[in-house]
Write a structure and sequence with these properties.
By secondary structure, the protein is α/β, with parallel strands linked by helices. It has 2 domains: 186 residues, 3-Layer(aba) Sandwich (D-Maltodextrin-Binding Protein, domain 2); 192 residues, D-Maltodextrin-Binding Protein, domain 2 (3-Layer(aba) Sandwich). 40% of the residues lie in helices and 16% in strands. The chain is built from 19 helices and 15 strands. It has a 5-stranded mixed beta sheet with strand order 2-1-3-14-6. It is globular. InterPro entries: SBP. Belongs to the bacterial solute-binding protein 1 family. This is Extracellular solute-binding protein. Keywords: Signal, Transport.
């Protein structure tokens, strides 16, 4: 599914007076101290739901209306690029929606600002087995402020025809096997070909090597976050990533991952590591420039890491949250549960998504069509849930560090040290 998480979180001016929440006191008095139930709720989702699974939205509406006759569920749909701008504006008023969809990496800044109401995980089906990275994305200072909606994993995808021409007939299971196979593919195709097209500014891929080596972007030390990209563990991961780029990436070293599937469709690379939809999108006749060779030759597999284990993935995906200014928080939470329960997750699986929980992920591992993505999703990492994480993303500190390393402008050690300094300036400031 072609959907890109928008990392920038513009929440600096939206939360004035945000602590005022809950029901109307006049309603309480009129009902003898019992809060009157809202007559309607407003749900904000992205156009993904509107275009790809409207029947699942309707099913959740029908379920809550059956329990609350007369309730009206209103929906508004937004594209990813403009959603947060509109959300920021409305959260500064008394007209906040009751449910809002957030990209998982967008959650941190809003939680830090107090924009979302705390939610009790026990009230949501499958919360005990939520995927690790999605659970982390809804947690701030030990409290839960959202419900995972769905997930998307990152996998390796390569062309079996190119691999076979280089004498490689099976997909690699270890990193040693992977690099050995890529060496053969690179040697066969020459230095104008990328055995692995790996854009240097793709921090989701590069930082997976850091996580694999036991490193982290930043560490929480008693409530204060300290950047740790220059730690020995992080440097080990960054060096492993640098080596792979130097050996197998012979494309533009200043690019990010946004058009990776388009570049892959040009036929000048054997492998990519990215979102699970990218291979299929590259094989689309509108994108494939190889004369149709991609369609029947793409194979996806779990990316092995240098540690000897599978490379931890940054899960793409969405969460659902209840703005603290919602006047119908209980109903909002109930709608979220109706939408994300096991039945709803089965519907999302049918649309090509991964579920929000490990229980329903397990059967997908037995299906050859979903085995790679489901297995990859089990081992994941997430960004620091720090007050200033949004500023780190907005400044593109990680992307700039990686480009400096890949192009040789700075050594790994110097680039990491400089990135740490930049991160430390903003990461603890809401």
């Amino acid at each position: 599914m072609k959907r890109k998480l928008i990392a920038a979180i513009g929440v600096a001016t939206m939360i004035a007076g945000v602590a005022a929440c809950g029901g109307d006191k006049k309603d309480d008095a009129a009902d003898g101290g019992k809060k009157a139930e809202a007559k309607s709720i407003t749900v904000w989702l992205t156009v993904d739901a509107q275009n790809n699974w409207p029947e699942l939205v309707k099913a959740a509406d029908d379920a809550i209306i059956a329990k609350h006759p007369g309730l009206t569920v209103k929906h508004e749909y937004y594209g990813w690029p403009d959603k947060n701008t509109k959300l920021d504006a409305v959260l500064a008023t008394d007209k906040a929606p009751d449910v809002v969809e957030m990209g998982n990496s967008e959650m941190v800044g809003y939680m830090a600002k107090g924009a979302f109401a705390e939610l009790d995980p026990s009230k949501f089906e499958n919360s005990a087995t939520w995927l690790d990275a999605l659970k982390a994305s809804t947690t701030y200072s030990g409290k839960n402020y959202g419900v995972p909606y769905y997930a998307g994993a990152r996998v390796a995808t390569w062309r079996k025809d190119i691999a076979a021409a280089a004498g490689v007939t099976t997909t690699p299971k270890t990193y040693t096997e992977l690099t050995g196979d890529l060496d053969k593919i690179q040697a066969k195709n020459g230095d104008k070909f990328s055995a692995w097209y790996n854009p240097s500014r793709d921090w989701y891929a590069a930082l997976a090597f850091v996580a694999d080596a036991g490193g982290a972007i930043a560490k929480d030390e008693g409530g204060k976050f300290t950047a740790s990209l220059s730690s020995p563990e992080s440097l080990k991961g960054l060096n492993a990533w640098k080596d792979s780029v130097a050996k197998y990436m012979h494309g533009d070293l200043t690019k990010d991952e946004s058009d990776r599937y388009i570049v892959y469709g040009q036929g000048k690379s054997a492998m990519i590591y990215g979102a699970s939809w990218e291979g299929g999108s590259a094989a689309d006749p509108k994108v494939d420039k190889t004369g149709g060779k991609l369609k029947d030759n793409l194979v996806s597999f779990v990316m092995p890491g240098p540690s000897g284990k599978q490379l931890p993935v940054f899960l793409g995906g969405s969460d659902l949250a209840v703005p603290v200014k919602s006047k119908a928080q209980d109903l909002a939470a109930e709608w979220i549960n109706d939408f994300t329960n096991s039945k709803g997750q089965l519907g999302l699986i049918g649309k090509g998504n991964l579920p929000n929980n490990k229980t329903q992920l397990a059967p997908l591992k037995a299906d050859p069509k979903t085995e790679a993505t489901a297995t990859a999703a089990e081992v994941s990492w997430f960004v620091p849930t720090a007050p200033g994480w949004g500023a780190v993303e907005k400044q593109k500190t990680l992307q700039d560090m990686l480009q400096q390393i890949a192009t040789g402008k700075k050594s790994v050690e110097q680039a990491a040290k400089d990135a740490d300094a930049a991160i430390d300036k903003v990461i603890n400031t809401p």
